[in-house]
């Protein structure tokens, strides 16, 4: 009988780790150390990683990541006095969070472990859905829940035994309460006012004119766009700006808050899994920069649906989360549940017995999405003022 492969030894203090956040607005990379919280240096690649019939393009991701990582390592090596033949600069662990990883990440899971081991000497690797890196950035490795809102909206929770997911199904099937949902509802109310139908908002119609021009031209401007969710979300701040004086706009935000709170309540770990101070629910992403017109009804509705919930503001973004996962992986300290598509750690990359942990919504196994299957998020650049987390959905 062949023994199971043992995990590599924990990395020494000072070893380098790499966190990556791949989304609709490009690739962000952070280099850090195992024993330090803050990144040493970061870089941004503005070109989004391509997605095709076979899923996320692993070669295109590597084309951007490898030279960027080499540049960051060179900068860090110069600073530390390393980089000589006697003291080579290497990366011990990498965590990559990507929009669409859960359903379109088959090629990444198949190709990246070998490619990164060969190119960077990586000993430990984690590939995560961007909702997971958002969770790690906002909550850390504690039980709790995160609502990541931008153009889309997804809620993710864990009791550290399995993941619980709600929504994040894209603007046609869900993302209820997200930026695109709010923007579309606001534009519908504006068009109702234009037509003289019930439920219309003259205030939102005025904002439509200011942002897009004539109401009659809006369908022609909107429907041909491949980035329709981002265009819809660009109107969400207009809804928030009108909410103080316009009942229709305020009602849209209250309904959005109800959807957000419902998703958050669905993923909160059971009260018994908490330490006595309730379930932490972190709100993260550009959606919540709309402030109290949205946050207040979210808190009120969540208090009704999940009295154990304790609403907080996320302490870090998905890039922070990716770096936190890389650090934890480096020292055998990754407590977040492994899963074949949500948080994939190749054999030998972490504690045994965690791969294959349950996820409540039944994500497909790697390779389980047919060619041309539904994308989690579009890879078009997000033009919406509701920034960040716009890719988070799926």
List keywords for this structure.
single chain, six-stranded mixed β-sheet, five-stranded mixed β-sheet, 12 helices, disordered C terminus
Low-confidence stretches: 1-7, 83-87, 349-394
Q: What is the gyration radius calculated from CA atoms?
A: 22 Å
Order of helices and strands: EEEEEHEHHEHEEEHHHHHHEHEHE
Q: Largest sheet at a glance?
A: 6 strands, mixed
Using DSSP, what is the number of strands?
Answer: 13
Q: Oligomeric state of the chains?
A: single chain
Present the secondary structure layout:
Elements: E1 16-23, E2 26-33, E3 41-45, E4 51-52, E5 55-56, H1 58-80, E6 91-98, H2 101-104, H3 106-120, E7 124-129, H4 130-138, E8 144-149, E9 153-158, E10 163-167, H5 179-195, H6 202-212, H7 218-222, H8 228-233, H9 236-242, H10 247-267, E11 279-284, H11 292-305, E12 309-313, H12 318-330, E13 343-344
Parallel strand pairs: 1-6, 6-7, 8-11, 11-12
Antiparallel strand pairs: 1-2, 2-3, 4-5, 7-13, 8-9, 9-10
How does this model look, in words?
The chain has 394 residues and is α/β, with parallel strands linked by helices. Helices cover 37% and strands 18% of the residues. The protein has twelve helices and 13 strands. The strands form three sheets. A six-stranded mixed β-sheet has the order 3-2-1-6-7-13, with helices on both faces. A hairpin with a 3-residue loop joins strand 8 and strand 9. Helix 1 packs parallel to helix 3 (106-120), helix 4 crosses helix 12 and helix 5 (179-195) packs across helix 6. It is globular. The two termini are 40 Å apart.
């Amino acid at each position: 009988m062949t023994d199971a492969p043992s995990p590599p030894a924990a990395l020494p203090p000072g070893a380098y780790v790499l966190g990556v956040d791949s989304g609709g607005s490009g690739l962000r990379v952070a280099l850090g150390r195992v024993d330090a919280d803050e990144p040493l240096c970061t870089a941004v690649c503005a070109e989004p990683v391509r997605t095709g019939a076979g899923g996320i393009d692993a070669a295109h991701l590597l084309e951007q990541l490898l030279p960027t990582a080499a540049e960051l390592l060179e900068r860090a090596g110069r600073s530390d006095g390393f980089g000589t033949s006697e003291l080579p600069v290497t990366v011990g662990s990498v965590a990559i969070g990507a929009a669409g990883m859960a359903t379109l990440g088959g090629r990444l899971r198949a190709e990246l472990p070998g490619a990164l081991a060969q190119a960077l000497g990586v000993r430990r690797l984690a590939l995560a859905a961007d909702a997971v890196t958002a969770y790690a950035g906002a909550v850390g490795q504690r039980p709790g829940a995160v609502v990541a809102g931008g153009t889309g909206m997804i809620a993710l929770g864990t009791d550290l035994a399995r993941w619980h997911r709600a929504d994040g199904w894209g603007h046609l099937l869900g993302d209820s309460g997200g930026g695109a949902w709010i923007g579309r509802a606001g534009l519908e109310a504006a068009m109702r006012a234009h037509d003289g139908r019930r439920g219309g908002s003259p205030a939102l119609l005025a904002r439509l004119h200011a942002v897009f021009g004539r109401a009659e031209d809006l369908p022609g401007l909107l429907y041909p766009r491949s980035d329709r969710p981002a265009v819809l979300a660009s109107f969400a701040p207009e809804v928030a700006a009108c909410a103080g004086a316009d009942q229709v706009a305020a009602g849209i935000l209250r309904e959005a808050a109800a959807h957000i709170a419902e998703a958050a309540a669905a993923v909160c770990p059971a009260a018994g899994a908490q330490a006595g101070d309730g379930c932490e629910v972190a709100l993260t992403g550009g959606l919540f920069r709309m402030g109290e017109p949205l946050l207040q009804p979210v808190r009120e509705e969540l208090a009704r649906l999940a009295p154990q919930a304790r609403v907080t503001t996320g302490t870090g973004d998905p890039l922070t989360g990716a770096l936190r996962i890389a650090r934890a992986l480096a020292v055998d300290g990754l407590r977040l549940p492994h899963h074949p598509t949500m948080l994939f750690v190749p054999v030998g990359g972490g504690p045994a017995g965690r791969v294959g942990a349950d996820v409540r919504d039944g994500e497909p196994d790697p390779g389980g999405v047919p060619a041309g299957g539904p994308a989690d998020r579009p890879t078009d650049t997000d033009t919406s003022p509701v920034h960040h987390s716009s890719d988070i959905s799926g």
